C-alpha cells in the first residue's frame, strides 16, 4: 500500500504539492491526471526518496522513502520518458547489468520478462538499434527485473505510435494481472489511462481536487448525457443526431422510446469518457 498524509513540497517560493493525502491499494492501477505543473512528477520523485517533503509523511508498504530509502527502492520499479538504457549494449546485456546492481539472478527472470513483454526477437541486438517502442518494452523489463511490488510510470508512452502505445499498455495490464504489481502512472493522454486504470487522482497546481473510479467521477461531475443516435424516422430526424438525457437513470427509457418509435441502429454517449470528465472537473474545481 502507498500512503500520502498531508504532504507538502516546495521549490523555493513555488509550492509543487500542497497538503496532499491519498491511499493507493495493493494491486491497483491508479492514474495521476492534471495539467502541466500539477505536481504529478513531484509525487513520483517523492515516492522514490529523490525529494524530501517540507511537511507530511509518505509510506510504501509501511516504509518511509527517507528513512528506509534502499528498501523502498527495492520495492519500486520506475520508468520515465527516458528508459535508462545503455545503447551500445544489447538488450540482454542491459538487463544483466541491472540484475547485477540489484544483486539478483538474471537469466531466469530475463526469460520470464522476455515472454511477457515479447522481447525475444530483439533481445540480443544493440539497444541503439531499437525503435522507441522496443526501448519502452525493455525499459519496463528493467523496471520489473527485481520483482517490485510497486511500479511508477511517468509518461511511459511518450513518443510511441498508436501500435506501440497499444502494445505497451497491453504489457502493463499483463504485468499487473500476472504479478499483482501496484501501478501509479502519469500521462497526459487520457484515452490511454482509461484503458488501464482502475482509479484516478486529479491534481491541479499541487492540490488534489478529487479522486475515484471513473464511474464515481461520472456520478459526481456529469450532469446530463449527450447521446448520439443513428436512426431512421425518429421525431422527424434520420441519420446521426444528438439528443440529451438528463441522467444515467433516464437513459434506458430514452433508448427504449427511440427503438420503439424508429429504426434505431446505434446509440453512443459522447460526454462520459475520461477526457470529458477531466474537463468537467477542471471547470468545477478550478
TrEMBL record:
<dbReference type="Pfam" id="PF00005">
    <property type="entry name" value="ABC_tran"/>
</dbReference>
<keyword id="KW-0067">ATP-binding</keyword>
<keyword id="KW-0813">Transport</keyword>
<dbReference type="GO" id="GO:0005524">
    <property type="term" value="F:ATP binding"/>
</dbReference>
<keyword id="KW-0547">Nucleotide-binding</keyword>
<dbReference type="InterPro" id="IPR003593">
    <property type="entry name" value="AAA+_ATPase"/>
</dbReference>
<dbReference type="GO" id="GO:0016887">
    <property type="term" value="F:ATP hydrolysis activity"/>
</dbReference>
<protein>
    <submittedName>
        <fullName>ABC transporter, ATP-binding protein</fullName>
    </submittedName>
</protein>
<dbReference type="InterPro" id="IPR003439">
    <property type="entry name" value="ABC_transporter-like_ATP-bd"/>
</dbReference>
<comment type="similarity">
    <text>Belongs to the ABC transporter superfamily.</text>
</comment>
<feature type="domain" description="ABC transporter">
    <location>
        <begin position="2"/>
        <end position="230"/>
    </location>
</feature>
<dbReference type="InterPro" id="IPR027417">
    <property type="entry name" value="P-loop_NTPase"/>
</dbReference>
Amino acid at each position: 500500500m502507498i500512503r500520502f498524509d498531508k504532504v507538502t513540497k516546495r521549490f523555493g517560493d513555488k509550492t509543487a504539492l500542497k497538503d496532499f493525502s491519498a491511499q493507493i491499494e495493493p494491486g491497483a492501477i491508479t492514474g495521476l491526471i492534471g495539467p502541466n505543473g500539477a505536481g504529478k512528477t513531484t509525487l513520483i520523485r517523492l515516492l522514490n526518496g529523490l525529494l524530501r517533503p517540507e511537511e507530511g509523511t509518505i509510506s510504501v508498504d509501511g516504509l518511509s522513502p527517507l528513512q528506509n530509502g534502499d528498501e523502498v527502492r527495492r520495492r519500486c520499479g520506475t520508468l520515465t520518458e527516458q528508459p535508462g538504457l545503455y545503447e551500445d549494449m544489447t538488450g540482454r546485456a542491459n538487463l544483466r547489468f541491472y540484475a547485477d546492481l540489484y544483486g539478483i539472478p538474471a537469466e531466469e527472470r530475463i526469460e520470464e520478462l522476455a515472454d511477457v513483454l515479447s522481447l525475444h526477437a530483439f533481445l540480443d541486438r544493440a539497444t541503439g538499434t531499437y525503435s522507441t517502442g522496443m526501448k519502452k518494452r525493455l525499459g519496463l523489463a528493467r523496471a520489473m527485473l527485481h520483482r517490485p511490488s510497486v511500479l511508477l510510470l511517468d509518461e511511459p508512452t511518450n513518443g510511441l505510435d498508436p501500435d506501440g502505445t497499444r502494445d505497451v499498455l497491453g504489457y502493463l495490464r499483463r504485468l499487473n494481472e500476472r504479478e499483482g504489481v501496484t501501478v501509479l502512472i502519469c500521462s497526459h493522454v487520457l484515452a490511454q489511462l482509461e484503458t488501464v486504470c482502475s482509479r484516478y487522482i486529479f491534481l491541479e497546481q499541487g492540490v488534489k481536487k478529487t479522486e475515484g473510479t471513473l464511474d464515481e467521477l461520472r456520478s459526481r461531475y456529469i450532469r446530463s448525457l449527450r447521446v448520439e443516435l443513428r436512426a431512421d424516422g425518429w421525431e422527424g430526424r434520420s441519420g446521426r443526431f444528438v439528443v440529451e438525457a438528463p441522467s444515467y437513470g433516464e437513459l434506458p427509457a430514452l433508448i427504449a422510446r427511440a427503438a420503439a418509435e424508429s429504426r434505431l441502429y446505434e446509440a453512443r454517449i459522447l460526454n462520459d469518457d475520461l477526457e470529458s470528465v477531466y474537463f468537467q472537473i477542471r471547470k468545477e474545481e478550478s
